[in-house]
Amino acid sequence: MELRHLRYFVAVAETGSLTIAAEQRLHTSQPSLSRQIRDLEDEVRAELFSRSARGVELTASGKAFLDHARLALAQVDAATEAARRAAQPAKQAFALGFQTGEEITWLPRAMQILRDELPDIDVTVSSS
């Protein structure tokens, strides 16, 4: 089973139409989408949709499959996001602390220098 099968299945289930799912959500042809759904049903060994002139409706098997398909796709999205975050180096942090009083004279300039010299750093400012 391929992820696209799950994506196609969810799109058809949510739109209730092979044509609308193909054209508006998946940007593919309706015959190709129908073939992919049939391939998925063959692999699952259950009819997931009942087809009629009014569109498609989930069968009991389709309803049972839908939540699991959504969960699997959500897990894939989470895994992708985790990998992307791991590929980015962690941002360095700079903490600037001071006693309240004269900060108005130097803090704006200090922040400007930090932004100019260290644009990819998180700055935390605190006073006591």
TrEMBL record:
GO molecular function terms attached to this record: DNA binding; DNA-binding transcription factor activity
GO cellular component term of the entry, any: protein-DNA complex
Domain HTH lysR-type: 1-59
Cited SUPFAM superfamilies: Winged helix' DNA-binding domain
InterPro entries linked to this entry: LysR_HTH_N, WH-like_DNA-bd_sf, WH_DNA-bd_sf
PROSITE patterns noted in UniProt: HTH_LYSR
Keyword tags: DNA-binding, Transcription, Transcription regulation
Family statement: Belongs to the LysR transcriptional regulatory family.
Full protein name: LysR family transcriptional regulator
